[in-house]
Amino acid sequence: MDKQRLKVYVPATTPIELNILISLLAEPRHGLGIIQEIAERTENEMFLSPGTLYSALKRMDKSGWIQQVEGGIEPADGNAERRTYHALTRAGQRMIINELDRMERFVIETRDLITKVRDDDQGGMPERQEQNCSDGDDLPEKALELNRFWRSKKPLLGLSLK
Q: What is the per-residue pLDDT for 96?
């Protein structure tokens, strides 16, 4: 009898959730620290409002991807203020790996599809779509760059990967 592989459904994260998880790779952070790290890392392309951040943190804590940890006492305007820190869990690390693998598969499949369309002498992309893709010739290279970028992030987890 052939053994069938059991597929387990792993939900995809949102870009906001993935960026929060990545921001917690190096160390636990409080809310403002997460907002600042994401803004800096994305060169201000992603800026989270506190409401968006705390809604996402609540969902992620419930999913087991992060957990609240004891935070230090930090001075704020001369007053000591206790802040809630959030740390990445093993489940959160696995979620990052799953997302990187999913993105990698997407990039490879997209690159292969673009190559197939380009090589197809019979059809190819309709004229109208080609006009909308002004820099379409660079698309496979951009996909490869994205693939290389995400591959370079995997070692940050300190986990053995495929």
A: 93
